[in-house]
Amino acid sequence: MFVRSRAKLLVSVIALTLLVLIVVACAAPATPPPAATSAPAATSAPAPAATKPPAPTSAPTQAAGPKRGGKVTWAVWQSPITLNNLLGTQTVMGDILSLVQEGMSEVGPDGARIPVLAKEIPTVQNGGVSADGKTITWKLKEGLVYSDGKPVTCADFQFTLQATMTPGVGVVSTTGYSDIDKVECPDPNTVVLKFKNFYAPYLALFSEDLIPKHAAGDPKDMAKWDFNRKPLGTGPFKVDEWQADSFITLSRNPNYREKDKPYLDQIVVRIVPSSEVAMQLLSSGEVDIMWNNTEADFPLLEKMAGVKTSEPLQIGGERLFLNMAENKDPSDPKKPHPILSDVKVRQAIEYGINKQRIIEKLLFGKAKPGTNEINAGFFQCANFKPRGFDVAQAKKLLDETGWVPGSDGIRVSKGSKTAPDGTRLRLKYATTSGNKLREDSQVLIVEDMKAIGVELYIENAPSSVVIGSWDAGSPRRHGNFDIIMYTTNASIDPHSQMMNLFYSKNIPSEANKGGVNYTRFNDPKVDELLEKAGSDPDQNKRRDLYCQVVAMGQETTNMIYLYQRLKIDSYRDRLLGWVPNAWDSPAWNAELWSLK
Amino acid sequence: MTQYILRRIIQAIPLLLVISFSVFLLMNLIPGGPLAAYENNPNITPEDLARLKTELGLDAPIHVRYWNWLTAVVRGDWGISQITRRPALTEIAEKLPNTLYLSLIAFFFALIISLPIGIISATRQYSWFDHFATTVAFIGQSMPVFWFGLVLIIIFNATLKHPNGGPFLPGGGMFTIGADFSLDDRLSHLILPASVLTFFSLGTHIRYMRAGMLDVLHQDYIRTAYAKGQHERAVLLNHALKNSVLPLVTIIGLEIPGLFAGAVITETIFSWPGMGRLFFNSIERGDYAVMMGILMMSATLIVAFGLITDIVYAFLDPRIRFD
Hints:
The structure holds two protein chains of two kinds.
Chain A: H1 2-27, E1 71-76, H2 91-97, E2 105-107, E3 113-115, E4 135-139, H3 154-164, E5 180-187, E6 190-195, E7 237-243, E8 247-252, E9 266-271, H4 275-284, E10 289-293, H5 298-303, E11 307-310, E12 317-322, H6 343-352, H7 355-362, E13 367-369, H8 391-400, E14 403-405, E15 411-413, E16 426-431, H9 436-451, E17 455-458, H10 463-466, H11 475-478, E18 483-488, H12 495-502, H13 524-533, H14 539-556, E19 559-565, E20 568-572, E21 575-576, E22 594-595
Parallel strand pairs in A: 1-9, 1-10, 16-17, 16-18
Antiparallel strand pairs in A: 2-3, 4-6, 5-6, 7-8, 8-9, 10-20, 11-20, 12-18, 12-19, 13-19, 14-15, 21-22
Chain B: H1 2-29, H2 46-55, H3 62-74, H4 88-123, H5 128-142, H6 145-159, H7 183-217, H8 220-227, H9 232-244, H10 246-261, H11 264-269, H12 275-285, H13 288-316
């Protein structure tokens, strides 16, 4: 009995030791490991691309042009939920899809539209846009085919519209498409959009989500389409395999319309949920691109050998929403806020905030002070003068409007037009809890405000509460707040954002639960300008109109723009051809990517 | 015994019903929901949101939605994810094998390492080995998993180089993407996450094994066994071991359902597509169907393993009787 037990024990100890040894040994495989990301040059490079000169945007290499072949691994921390543009809004989905699908046009780094499937961008001048703006004619390039070789025709645009407007399948957004009456196809290469109502950002329609009729299915079964997991398009790459929460592999589209492109053979999108880990993988070279960095990554990124950063400036940014109506649940927009309804108080708050200090202390100097809603792109105003940091001016304005310093330095009303005498200048300051950058910037802003005699007290809530719906009791909708801070960005066409934030009919109320004009901004002149801008097919005229609204917004100071951030991605320097573009996916020009 | 088991199974049904209803209720009380991601998107109009609410079946009152869910589940339909639009069961079935593969291996190693260490620690109480083992156990239990995992990646991926020039060990994933299946490749991806998980549960297991053994060693029957002149090893293996593992069995019975639920932090650090991340994501996105599926699976497993633990008790300790 005893002997047997001892033998058993011995055997198990030996087995254990062996197992440990095996596992350790396997860590250093004797056999050559499978081709990793650092695959050598010897890939299946076809004939040299001698006939065509290198694309102007690609990084300069040898005179022979970019090298062909190779694989690039792209780490993203967000896990895509679908690859059907109609069923999701995730940034990561759009960024990956830009490798696969294309639309009529795309937005280049300078914020101007570049034709992609279209021959040119329709305008009133070239006859592509009718005088009333309700008929838009797109001409497709000749001989376009999908990655499976089937031709792109106008019927696919008809189908895309039909799919978008199918009720009951959970299409996320029908904005703009719901204004289209029908798509007419005079010939397979001409797409004519007939609108019921004029839709100002008409150029944005069909710019990313063309669904090939033959590869999808019955729109009523959209949720079950294979296409959702394996989309098909005209882009430089095609999806080979998607393992949820793990990776998506894409390979070269052999039928891509530009000869010799794309240069790479393969792109692997790897889902690395921890950005700390993604940084290490970038450093070790296991991945070539890291998606969506933050400013806090800069100290580490700058120390990494062989790593570059892409940092174009994004539109929009973090801002304070000042509630100009009473702070009540629900708020009556006609009743003024006892403190914030005074324009001089609002302006004083902006003068008193040291935006540059927030940028230096919290954003590693890598941001720009906020200016206005349209701070980048085609619709940006050329002659906008931002308000600077001026403590003396802030104090002067508050003195003038009847807020005088009390015994502890915080101001109290003495002759203010909006509040009874003796009212303390004290405001609630909310943002989404758990966001370190926001919480740290609150500390700085509270300090700045104290210096001009304004007391802010912080009361934060989870983002699902702050940015919630009317029915969920969100304070920004109900109007029971003084100051709320978060970020929102306009699209390249700022129409919907401007309507949301400045149009008086969008003030939220019980009768208008979906309203998004949270500051309760109400100016009939602005309403008129916005309506004009939303009904004029001439883009230049629209820009002038939005500029006027932006200027009036600054005068009113219903929002205080704090900082405008960079869109940061990082990549290893063996990847050539990268062109930063804040308006699109980091992979927007992946057909020009190549390896050193 | 059979009657006892049957009774326990029948008792479990109302329990699971109560659990499912409370969970459903709690889940709907979490602010957010499947549409929260669209609330701050300037391109999604209020009309779109109202339409989606109807299309995704979120506008019905909660008791109606619970009833719909329950009647569907009884028929074997776990619902469609409101986020990915795929069947909840598909989502779970896709991730469960990945999680079991990692967690069972870690569990197995934790067990076979901790048993002998715990026994030796107890019999040589206060020896240098005991101090060493207790310290290691303590470190394993108290070291934050995300920190330990990241440190391993920094050492074995970002710093140490493999002779072929690449990183010494892969920094995540289950295998090299696009490569053919190879055991080397699988194991090299497994070693870091499995080590983290093993080290973590090692601590608990060693401490329970040691405490259980110490407890038994002070019993009269052990002294009797020694008095009969039996050798120490015989006393330990024949008399003490079976009784001393009772506390450990309880812990293991509680741990096994957890193996199915996955380890969210380890899976996040090592990019492992498992159940922990699926559950975490489904909470974050308000994916009710998937959340309910995972929670009900866990609840059922906990109830089942509670029963199994009790049966194992009776087997290990004949004094325990269920009538």
